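Sample A.
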Amino acid sequence: MRLRRSLVSVVIIFLFLGSALVGFSSMFMGGREEEVVVVLETSRGVIEVELDGESAPVTMGNFLQYVEDGHYDGTVFHRVVPGFVIQGGGFLPDGTQRDTRDPIELESDNGLRNLRGTIAMARLNEPDTATCQFFINLDDNDFLDYREGGSDGYAVFGRVVEGMDFVDAIASVATGSRGPYQDWPVRDVVIVRAYVKD
């Protein structure tokens, strides 16, 4: 009888630990199922972005890791093109580029479109090259969407739910050249802090 009770206790403990580990992994890995909102406190106002981990788990997990590492704090929106996008997350105000982790696989074929107010990952010409830089669409940029047999597209992984007026304010700033870069705001637009909303 004592042996049976001991075995039952051991099984219960393992079941508890297993469920705890599953909960932990779903919270901190790319496959979060609960609603996740990231707050971007910028020098032009606060922008809140709701992430879509169901459609873009790898992309969301990558973005959240950069957020939790403090990577975006102090970076700038370095590319502002009215009627197109505002892009940031990779450069400091002096033009220094932040170190990045390895690139991630492209998740542009996820059913999400590059509509006004959505957030997507920037990348190089090759598909699987996105690291930390992201952009917010200022218009419905359907030419950035994935098309089978055509464009590889850009992976959308969320949308602005608060602060689109501040996004538009950033889009209206004067821009110029900074080193080899074009469309850089004359007065820096800084991401003061990025964090996951409670």
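Sample B.
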Amino acid sequence: MHLTVIKQLPSTEEIIQAFPLSEKAYENISRDQQEVKDILSGKDNRMLMIVGPCSAWPHEATLEYAQKLKKLEEKLRDQLKIVMRVYIQKPRTSKGWTGPVNQPDPFLPADIGEGIRYSRSLMVKIIEMGLPIADEAVFTHNAKGFIELLSWVAIGARSSEDQEHRIFASAIECPVGMKNPTSGSLEIGVNSIIAAQSGHTAVFNGQQVETHGNPFAHLVLRGGMDRPNYHVEDITKAKKYLEAAQVTNPSIVIDASHDNCKIDGVKDPIQQLNVAHEVLAAMKLYPHLRKLVKGFMFESFLKSGCQKLEKLTTETVDRNGLSITDPCLSWEQTEDLLNTIAQEHAKLSSM
């Protein structure tokens, strides 16, 4: 192998013992996973909201955001199932910061051992607050110690065509959102769901295994090639692919960020508001959308916008809730948006 060994990492068991989760919190994760599954299957009429920072950094600002979101979740839980994004892994189009699990201090050399401690500690603290959490499965080989903490997991646009990620989605019990690829192809997006819902023969921990398939794998529309795919015609087209494939629990979550929030090729976090309003308006007009669209994803932090990491130093970076990756909605914008969605959903439920 063309590599250099840097150091031995702590074992998963050591990390779990260092940052244990209470029995009550484990019970909450099981309950939260089931509630998300019930939304996807249509047993629970609430809307699913996957909301939070683009990347879970820095620690203190992420916890402050979690505390605010927990208070809002308590207010809106009759209409919305809110799951906080605690994204510790970041896929890159070419290169760049790959998230706190690899580099907990983006201004110091990568330290995966410290990154694992940072990430597990942060996730445990937020779950113990009573909030369910979500992450993107980028590095599937080191999932233990994290995957069991999640109530929802994403397979990203750069990973959903990869067989290893599809098999991983097939093997886990957690509800999993399969994003359409960066090309924006709805057909390929649905193919990833078929693969995730199917069983596979694979190798796990040196053993030949059969995965059972994940009936709660579902489609996440995030746009592609600088074009959105949240409009009525896009959702209707996706519905036809899902029906043709006879997908179990056919469901769509609208990712209001990424290519769905670009204006002239540039991400505008405020466009996330427009995405939500347009989809909600369409759901009023078209009953088939109400049955299919089960929720939204939003990138949101304490402050609006973002800062460019490559232009920052440890002295100049804003550590008070301004994203160092994708631009986010501010907390105030997020609070208003979720309140509005809850109100609109209550109206939709009475139709």
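B remarks: The mean pLDDT is 96. The two ends are 61 Å apart (CA to CA).
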